[in-house]
Specification:
Two copies of one chain form a homodimer. Chain A has a single domain (2-82, 91-188), classed as Rossmann fold (3-Layer(aba) Sandwich). In chain A, a hairpin with a 5-residue loop joins β1 (13-14) and β2 (20-21). Chain A has helices at 2-11, 32-45, 62-72, 131-142, 161-167; strands at residues 13-14, 20-21, 29-30, 53-57, 76-79, 91-98, 103-110, 119-127, 146-156, 172-181, 186-188. By secondary structure, chain A is α/β, with parallel strands linked by helices. Chain A contains five helices and eleven strands; from the N terminus they run αβββαβαββββαβαββ. β5 of chain A pairs antiparallel with β3 (29-30) of chain B. Chains A, B: Keywords: Cytoplasm, Glycosyltransferase, Membrane, Purine salvage, Transferase, Transmembrane, Transmembrane helix. Chains A, B: Its main location: cytoplasm. Chains A, B: It catalyses: XMP + diphosphate = xanthine + 5-phospho-alpha-D-ribose 1-diphosphate.
């Protein structure tokens, strides 16, 4: 997706060969028009699937997932990393380690919103080691629903998550795949 | 906002006289079309102000704030409750206690995205005691920016946050204000 690659080149900040900071448009400040274009691109990529739900993980997945939900007219569920008084009982949970935040979280989705037979598109901002997506796939499986695809805004193609998921038969659609990066240059696949 | 009140009546769940669960369309599952309508309504309410930024707090403020950002063509910043490897240095911070989650968080915004002179619309999902909004107002003040208004999806009018803010001269636009609620009935102002 050219618009996204341009944003990454112009506003991304390579902090190390593995850490890309995109706080200017995705992870802290959000470019709403870009998110709308991202949602439309996901809808185009998944136009052949009959999805019933969109599932993401708080917080940075929410904006692109909501824009996809708007295009497809589907409910968007965001898995919670923290417990809330109002989210209790009857939860589908999985453990996810975030290398960027260096924390292990239990992610939770209420059974009220994910049912057996649901056809789920999983959306996330980044794919690196694949921890978050594996947690979301586990939640979908626990609900006896089906993950019909995974949509990723930025995939770090030099880390193993995307390859492992695809090798396991998961359909992964990444709008930008970075093959390598340093402070001078970001190379896209 | 009638559409929102209808959603609250039809899908809200009063857990106690002070706790309203709206996980079906706002806090866990997101109704994207409703969020778009909410964004448009905020834009209408704030059509007289010349805002330059929209500020919210992860996670449930992100969808309505992003939809407002889309309508107004403005950047949306979400304050972080947790630290990230990529969010560091040069932070504007405030302490916020959440009564619903029963945790005290330090919320943070990078100085990179909020500058002196910015005219900021603050958006949040709920207003009860006003803790989150006060934290966001503190962040705006630290940046030497101006909060031109606060947009709230659901205000619990029977708690003191909204009154205190308005008494202090803060412009608060709440799309639904609940005066009282019990399991049988939700009464809107």
């Amino acid at each position: 997706m050219q618009l996204l690659q341009d944003k990454i080149r112009d506003f991304g900040n390579v902090l190390s060969p593995t850490v890309l900071k995109v706080d200017a448009f995705l992870n802290h400040q959000i470019d709403a028009a870009l998110m709308k274009a991202v949602g439309e691109e996901f809808a185009e990529r998944f136009k052949d699937v009959q999805a019933t739900k969109i599932l993401t993980l708080e917080s940075s997945g929410i904006a692109p997932a909501t824009m996809l939900g708007l295009v497809l007219g589907l409910p968007v569920i965001f898995a919670r990393k923290r417990k809330s008084l109002t989210l209790s009982g009857n939860l589908l949970s999985a453990t996810v380690h975030s290398f960027t935040k260096n924390v292990t979280s239990e992610i939770s989705v209420s059974r009220d919103f994910l049912q057996a037979g649901d056809q789920v598109i999983i959306i996330d901002d980044f794919l690196a080691n694949g921890e978050a997506v594996r947690g979301l796939l586990s939640v979908v499986a626990q609900a006896e629903a089906t993950a019909v695809g995974v949509g990723i805004v930025i995939e770090k193609g030099f880390q193993h998550g995307g390859k492992e998921l695809r090798d396991n038969g998961v359909r992964v659609e990444s709008l930008a795949i970075i093959d390598s990066m340093d402070t001078d240059h970001i190379r896209f696949r």
